[in-house]
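Can anyone check this?
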Amino acid sequence: MYLDEAVVIVLAGGVGERLSPLTRERAKPAVYFGGPYRIIDFTLSNCINSGLRRVFIATQYKSLSLHRHIRLGWNVVSDELGEFIEVPAPQKRVGEHWYQGTADAVYQNLYSIQREGPRHLIVLSGDHVYKMDYSRMLRFHMERGAGATLAVIDVPSEDAHRFGVLQVDGSDRLTGFLEKPRDLPPGQMHLASMGIYIFDMSVLLPALEDDARLPSSHDFGKDIIPALISKVPVYAYRFTDENKKASKYWRDIGTLDAYYEANMDLCRVNPEFNLYDPEWPVRTHQVQAPPAKFVFADEGRRSGQALDSMISAGCIISGSTIRGSVLCPNVRVHSFCRVEESILMPGVRIGRHARLRGVIVDRDVFIPRGAQIGYHPEEDRRRHTVTDRGIVVVTKHDEPFIGPIAEDALRNEAEFDARGHG
């Protein structure tokens, strides 16, 4: 089968500076999304659902949590059948530097790739959210006799400056490539590169070797593809969405506001991105935790409830109200709280009488009793990161939400609950 002739490499070493401070402790592909998932889970699920089971993951920046997640959640292939999902460590095999760009990341892993003897290499990014059957694109690539194929999606002129923009002929063969153009006529649609590539190894090897000798940025979009257009057939493959919605869904959630909006969409009655399709399951590492629990209904004084929200395993909503929010595993919300349109990462604890609105709370943060976040912009900006649209990001580095005082408060809350006060 033609899938057996392909190997995948997922590029997951990006710093994700625009998602800081969520990427202060972890790589962008390891950031939580939609409750229990990590961003990389969507690319890896696409691989498995496409029948591609020989996958390398190239990591670099603060990759410990990402490595652990892959080890715990993605042991789903058979070594005996020659399948693998493997994370080769950066080894400086071809020089004295770490990965210098997307093309260099592949170049430095050529030894591992070539040992598998593939005819085709599929290059993916580990930090986008979408559903795609890569086997369709590979079939298109082979039928066209392409040396390289790029997946593309339509974007309006005002968004084109964020992408590589392709020019094609009537058969979708590339005739030009513009990297992040800023002078396109308004009101038009353009074909934008999705950062998804398929190469014939006979084409890719000399291209990478030539690029390695040049003082370039060693990037597929900026360097490799433009150099190949005049040498071999390079085609554009128009994105076929497996999300089964009216509009195509592909998100580069590279900013805090984009990340927030994509999570909030999941809480809607009919979200743009469908996590509930049994024909295209999204896999992840599921923590060993009991079901979510909602407790206390004291005749109107307090009620544990969540409306228009996604609540993960291990969460306890103790006499508080959650609205339009995403709670990752093992979140605890104590009594008389109100959490609205917020994202709570794993292990977050919310003290009694706290109020949160439009907030992203990073992992294992304790919000003390009576705190109000998202209601006082000047105070929020003094203590926390605040995005352009006013979303507040709270991390464990933000005083006074950590340290002995917060830990004592958490112990006091636990003792209070143990006495039956919830």
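Reply from J.R.: I decoded it. Confidence is low (pLDDT under 50) at residues 401-407.
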